[in-house]
Design goal:
Layout lengths: L1 H100 L7 E5 L8 E5 L9 E6 L2 E6 L4 E5 L4 E7 L3 E9 L5 E12 L4 E6 L2 E3 L1 H10 L2 H5 L8 E5 L15 E4 L1 H8 L3
Antiparallel strand pairs: 1-2, 1-12, 2-3, 3-4, 5-6, 5-11, 6-7, 7-8, 8-9, 9-10
């Protein structure tokens, strides 16, 4: 009986030790599984961060490439624009050359000027040695050369302003015109003044824009649109020039730096063919 009790006690002790061992092993295993899980989560997070960093790098590189491509396109467009400007210059020069070659040759002086604010020259022809024939101005509108007959006295213009003043005199009349040439090559008359007289009758009259006015009104109107008046509202350094049509007038009071002169039609055509 006593031996059976001792045996039973021994079995209970062995069971308790095994249970404790199992519990201890179970706790250690749980801890290890938890640590492993945390390590897996950390590794996954690191991989995700690496992937995101790689994507950001790829996006940055892509944006830089796109920017470089845009800059290249812009540079190409600028280069093409420069080519267009050169082509335009060649085009208007050819138009003028063809027009002059198809017209009667002249021996007076030609001046290339920039009357309006585009890159196309206008051409003024001044007789220079006679007042019997009027001068003229060539300009281009809608791809066509047009010719404006000028007076036989003198013409004024302000460079790149579009304004051209023209004066002419005959036996019984003196006329005044103020023209405007816009950047599209469209020419219009802004003002017209006429002073007429009859020596035999001893009479005279003044007309401004088609309306008869007094001497004082005519003088005032003319002064209000004179080159000096217009020039006062323009930036410093703006050039106002007068081209005389006859030797009795100064051929040029002030020559703009961009103005070129040519004696006779042939010399001007030869220049235009090199543009």
């Amino acid at each position: 009986m006593k031996q059976r009790r001792n045996k039973l006690m021994t079995m209970l002790l062995l069971g308790s030790c095994m249970t404790a061992a199992l519990l201890s092993a179970g706790c250690d295993g749980g801890t290890t599984q938890k640590e492993t899980h945390q390590e897996e989560e950390t590794s996954a997070a690191a991989e995700t961060e690496a992937e995101e960093t790689g994507e950001e790098a790829e996006n940055t590189e892509s944006q830089e490439t796109e920017t470089e491509n845009q800059e290249t396109v812009s540079e190409n467009q600028e280069a093409e624009g420069a080519g267009d400007t050169a082509a335009t210059a060649s085009e208007w020069a050819t138009l003028y050359a063809d027009y002059l070659e198809s017209s009667d040759a002249k021996t007076g002086t030609y001046y290339t000027i920039y009357l309006n604010n585009d890159d196309i020259s206008e051409i003024i022809y001044a007789i220079g040695d006679s007042g019997d024939t009027n001068g003229s101005m060539l300009y281009i509108e809608d791809g066509e050369v047009k010719e404006l007959e000028l007076g036989n006295k003198y013409s004024d213009f302000i460079e790149k302003s579009g304004y051209l003043w023209d004066n002419s005199v005959s036996d019984n009349q003196e006329s005044f015109f103020l023209y405007s040439l816009d950047d599209a090559g469209s020419l219009q008359i802004l003002h017209e003044g006429i002073y007429a007289w009859d020596h035999d009758q001893g009479t005279s009259s003044y007309t401004w824009d088609g309306t008869e006015v007094t001497t004082e009104e005519y003088s005032t109107n003319q002064a209000n649109v004179a080159p000096a008046t217009i020039l006062a509202d323009m930036p410093d350094g703006t050039v106002s020039s007068m081209i005389g049509q006859t030797e009795s007038y100064v051929l040029f009071t002030e020559v703009p730096e961009s103005t070129l002169s040519f004696e006779g039609t042939a010399a001007l055509v030869e220049y235009l063919q090199t543009c």
